[in-house]
What does this fold into?
Amino acid sequence: MLEILFFLGLAVYFFIRYRDVLGKPPEDIPTQKPFSFEDKGNVITLNPDEVTSSDPSSPAGGASLAHILKAMATIDPSFSEKSFLGGSKEAFKLIVTAFAAGDKETLAPLLSPDVFKTFCKTIDQRAKNKETVHFTLHRIRDAIVNQAMLQGSQATIDVIFDSDQAEFVKDAGGNVIDGDADHIIEVRDIWSFARDLKAPNPNWSLVAVRAGSA
It folds into this structure.
C-alpha cells in the first residue's frame, strides 16, 4: 500500500487557468520531453554521512544521484525509488484536488499551520467573492526523481511532475473570470520532499513546490 505523505511546508503555487472536462485529454496537447537523469551504472558505495547533494552547482559539490539514492537505502533499507515515487504521486493528486475544492478538512493534517493559514486565506476569499473553481487532474504523465540531498540522515528528494490539468474559475454569475475554459494544459512542477531516514515515522514531508521549465 502506498504511503500517504504528510507535508510540513508547502510553497504556494497553484495555477488557476484550466477547464473542468471529463475523459481523456485531446491528442493535440503538446508533450514535453520528460526530464531524466543519467544512470551512472557502476555505483560506488559511499559513507552516508559524507554524501551531500546531487546538484553539481551546490557549494558541497555534486555526488551522483544514483550514489545518493543508494546511500538513502543504506540508512533505511525500506526505502526504494519506486515506492517513493508511488507515494509522491498519491500526494500530488490529493493536495492539488483538495486545494482546488477548498477542502480545508483534507488540507489541515497535510500542511504546517502557517501554510494552512495561507491556503485558507485563498479559499476564504474565493468563498467571499462567491467564486467556484472547476478542476480536473486528468493524469500524471510522468514523475521523475530529479535531484537529491543527504546530510547525515536528513534526506531531500526533488520530483518533477508532468501532468494534464484543467481548471477555471467562475464568478457568482457563472462567468469565467480566470483560467481557460477551452484547453487542457500540460503542467510541469517540481516538488521537494524531506525526511529523517532514521526516524520511526516513514512518512515524507513536502517542503517546497516550484514551477518547472520544459
Summary: Residues 14 and 96 are 8 Å apart (CA to CA). Confidence is low (pLDDT under 50) at residues 1-46. The chain is about 25% helix and 30% strand. The helical segments are 65-75, 81-101, 104-107, 113-128.
